[in-house]
Design goal:
Helix content is 67%, strand content 6%. With 892 residues, the protein is an alpha/beta fold. It is a multi-pass membrane protein.
């Protein structure tokens, strides 16, 4: 059963220098290797020593035991959350500090926009480093928490009492490990925005107060109302998840969240400027674009990440509560540790007036006054009808209910054909011992076995054992080596099955995978409608920014010489009027409000169609692979362990249900923002086309290199995930057998090895993603610096509103460009899960249940005989025959 770790090379991360760890330099070698050939597990390195499952488990287990002890002393309920916080308190404080530094530096950008001529941002590299390092550290903490909890849950499974196993099931455990624990990934980096967002919000309004005075409080009121709305939606989402379990309702709530968060900047700017004008103040380009830039800075931390963090935190708390309930289930009491086996009497099994039951909560006693003593080497028959207590007695012997001493051969049965081999016989009825002794003693006492057991007939002369005869069992065990028979055979079988490598496709994701996914979610008409909503809403989104710049330029010109503007208009003002800029400020505000309402509606439709496509695709693909699995041949289940199959239905389908819809929505929105902002900037300043072309020319080859490497890493991560589920399923099913032979420690070590392999792939996947984003950030620095330089070199005919529009668009590109390229790349790696699901949609099916052409006659069968005439049989994909020239007839 012992399967060694597939990844054996020492951790590259541990051997890297501090600077290499900070700048992700240690991961670049994987890009070089992945560009030339497919990566395999021999190219990977182990996870860091501090990320190994055993180390993480011991840390968390120590705090959990401390929490259990404290809760018992104070008569309180223990909390797994407190144990996690105490275990990782240093890492969490570090992450909070990193987020504070990142957001503090980000607030400097809008102030520099206010001084457009002197604007320059050399500190951008610091922001990139702090953000990427904070994101990477957060993901690493999440990885550690998930590994530690998985190991803790697995250890708990090994300790569950028989009654506790009836209170849970393998499906619940696998769902916790595969899906619910993934919530920790989301909360790991959004949680800190809940802490940072209030301080950032206060800082923004302190800055705005210097520009707008009391008018800035309008935005604060909107944010407060918005936050309460998000809190309510988070509670509503949890209600759907816990009570109704309707994915459609869950997506609907998330859709509202996305719409409000995406348009938060526009809404805040509108209401702030409206209040500013209503209070009798004048607008200018500096006030408008500083306000716009500040709200762009807090757009994600305050209006998206913080509310989402609250929702993710609520979901994570539900997950931790479920894990806590599992960890608090009743454990099997191992009394054998207190027994001195050398002091035992000669009898290896000894019961004296023993009473027992499955669980203390039951009123019924399953075993009553059992007294027996079994000598070494004796074969004992436990006889009795169904429900008499035979299984309960066996569980008592195995210490699943009570203690066990020594080793012997016990054959538990309600059959009578083995009585001639028995040294002693015990007859049970309703848990009570009615008779116990040798067959001769019971016969002399006039015991009627048939009457006590039921109406079963003794037909031992007709019985032919197909696996192994009782005589062979009896003879082979004269040397008292029972413990080497059943478990080792089963473990070797599991090892043989698990040793078969899981099939994995190579290269980049095929276009057919995307086509099949979208075909499962929509038709041609709906797809065209979705594209239409995307194009129109994005045009309106960027047009509103362009219109705002035109309005500010017009206001600036009018304030210089209002009378002259009324008499004659320059060509710029004429163009402004073409863009619906009016002399009356209230008309401008009205137009802005109408445009915003239309934008809100189109954005809602844009997101709704996106969500519906993903929802329908997820449902249809699940139904497709489930129907295929029901019709799969038995050979498929023989060649694929349970964990491998469950991995497709839990891990991969979990990506289809949760990750892919959000990634596709991010792509839908982010790509539009990046393209729109680039076009707007290039229209205002055509020289920027050169810079944008250069940035695109560099990014596309980098993305190709990234995808060649990361797609393979993602596939290997999915493959190394399967043995984890197989191990849990196998352990849960064979719990009694494992504990009977004291193999708990071996299974724990094996589970830790599986976790380490999977953690190595996961950490590499995350590191490559962060490294790629870090590289792209440096190119956005070049882009931003080029924009600023061109504004300084060619200042002619560029007014304040135009310059503010260019710089605010550039800041959006800085924040969005690397995220855009990376989310597209990550979406392609997530499509590996779709690829794996579609593979199960092509599982060969058995013959149809009904074959009309070969339908038997209505009066079939007449004789009811079975005839085999020279039958040969081979299993699929094998050459060896398992049946050779078989001929026989079975008459009715």
């Amino acid at each position: 059963m012992d399967i060694e770790e597939k990844i054996t090379r020492k951790s590259f991360f541990d051997s890297a220098t501090f600077l290499s760890k900070l700048l992700f330099g240690w991961s670049l070698k994987f890009f070089a290797t992945g560009f030339w050939r497919e990566l395999n597990l021999n190219d990977y390195s182990k996870c860091s020593a501090k990320d190994e499952a055993k180390y993480l488990f011991e840390k968390l287990n120590q705090q959990w035991k401390r929490e259990l002890k404290y809760a018992k002393e104070k008569n309180k309920k223990p909390s797994i959350l407190k144990s996690i916080l105490r275990t990782y308190e240093v890492e969490l404080l570090f992450l909070t500090l990193m987020h504070i530094i990142d957001e503090t530096i980000a607030l400097c950008h809008p102030l520099l926009i206010g001084i457009i001529v002197r604007y320059f941002s050399p500190a951008k590299s610091e922001i990139t480093t702090s953000y990427e390092e904070a994101r990477n550290a957060g993901i690493r903490v999440a990885l550690r928490v998930k590994s530690a909890l998985s190991a803790l849950v697995f250890q708990k499974i090994l300790k569950l009492s028989k009654s506790a196993t009836g209170q849970t099931n393998i499906g619940l455990v696998l769902n916790l490990i595969s899906n619910d624990l993934n919530k920790i990934d989301d909360v790991a980096w959004t949680l800190f925005f809940i802490i940072v967002a209030p301080f950032e919000l206060v800082a923004v309004h302190v800055i705005l107060w210097q520009y707008m005075g009391i008018s800035c409080l309008a935005a604060l009121a909107i944010i407060i109302v918005y936050s309460f709305t998000q809190w309510f939606l988070a509670k509503l989402l949890n209600k759907f998840r816990s009570e109704v379990k309707q994915m459609k309702n869950s997506y609907a709530v998330r859709m509202v969240n996305f719409v409000t968060a995406e348009l938060a900047t526009k809404i805040l700017v509108f209401f702030t400027l409206l209040v500013h004008l209503l209070l009798g103040n004048q607008l200018n380009a500096e006030i408008t674009f500083v306000t716009l830039a500040l709200f762009n800075v807090i757009r994600y931390p305050v209006t998206f990440h913080a509310p989402n963090g609250i929702g993710y935190l609520a979901e994570t708390l539900v997950t931790l509560r479920r894990i806590q309930e599992l960890l608090l289930l009743e454990e099997r009491q191992d009394d054998l540790k207190e027994i001195n086996f050398a002091a035992l009497p000669k009898g290896s099994i000894h019961f004296f007036k023993y009473c027992g039951k499955w669980t203390r909560k039951l009123d019924r006693i399953n075993l009553k006054n059992i007294t027996m003593q079994v000598e070494p080497g004796e074969l004992v028959i436990i006889a009795g009808p169904v429900g008499s207590g035979k299984t309960c007695l066996l569980m008592a012997i195995l210490n699943e209910i009570e203690k066990i001493s020594g080793k012997t051969r016990i054959l538990v049965t309600h059959q009578l054909q083995y009585i001639n081999k028995a040294d002693k016989i015990m007859i049970l009825k309703d848990g009570e011992c009615l008779a116990y002794g040798t067959p001769q003693q019971l016969q002399k006492a006039g015991i009627d076995f048939l009457a006590l057991i039921g109406s079963e007939k003794e037909e031992s002369e007709k019985v032919e054992l197909t696996m192994i005869a009782i005589d062979e069992i009896y003879e082979k065990n004269e040397a008292h080596n029972v413990e080497t028979i059943p478990l080792s055979a089963r473990m070797s079988l599991v090892a043989h099955i698990e040793s078969k490598e899981e099939y994995s496709t190579k290269g980049s994701i095929k276009f057919k995978v995307y086509l099949d996914y979208f075909k499962a979610g929509t038709n041609h008409f709906m797809f065209i409608v979705t594209i239409g909503f995307v194009l129109f809403s994005q045009f309106l989104y960027n047009y509103m920014d362009y219109w705002l710049a035109s309005w500010m330029d017009y206001t600036q010109s009018a304030s210089l010489d209002r009378k002259e503007i009324n008499l004659t208009l320059s060509s710029q003002e004429a163009n402004n009027r073409d863009f619906f800029v009016y002399d009356d400020q209230m008309k401008n505000i009205t137009f802005y409000a109408i445009a915003m309402l239309v934008l809100l509606l189109t954005y809602a439709l844009r997101i709704a169609t996106n969500v519906l496509i993903c929802l329908k695709a997820s449902i249809n693909l699940h139904n497709r692979i489930f129907s295929r699995l029901l019709r799969a041949s038995i050979a498929f289940f023989d060649n694929n362990p349970t964990g491998r199959i469950l991995n497709r239905f839990t891990g991969d389908m979990g990506f289809l249900d949760q990750k892919i819809p959000m990634s596709l929505l991010d792509i839908n929105l982010t790509v539009g923002v990046v393209i729109g902002s680039t076009i707007v900037s290039c229209l205002v300043d055509p020289y920027l086309i050169i810079v944008a072309t250069f940035l695109l020319a560099i990014s596309l080859p980098l993305r190709r290199i990234y995808l060649r490497t990361v797609s393979n890493v993602k596939r290997n991560e999915a493959i190394t995930r399967s043995p984890i589920f197989t191990e849990i399923s196998t352990t849960f099913d064979g719990l009694t057998c494992i504990r009977a032979f004291k193999y708990e420690h071996k299974f724990e070590e094996q589970f830790h090895r599986f976790l380490n392999d999977n953690n190595a792939c996961k950490f590499l996947w995350y590191a490559l993603s962060r490294s790629f984003g870090f590289i792209l950030d440096w190119f956005t620095i070049i882009f931003f610096t080029s924009i600023t330089t061109m504004l300084l070199i060619f200042p002619e005919n560029i007014k304040g509103g135009t310059a503010g529009l260019i710089l605010s668009s550039a800041i959006i590109l800085i924040n969005e460009f690397q995220f855009c390229i990376r989310i597209i790349s990550e979406f392609e790696t997530q499509m590996v899960s779709v690829e794996r699901v579609l593979e199960y949609g092509e599982i060969p099916s058995e013959a149809p249940l009904k074959i009309v052409e070969k339908k038997p006659p209505a009066n079939w069968p007449k004789n009811g005989c079975i005839v085999f005439n020279h039958v040969y049989l081979t299993y699929p994909h094998t050459m060896n025959r398992v049946l050779h020239d078989l001929c026989f007839t079975i008459d009715a």
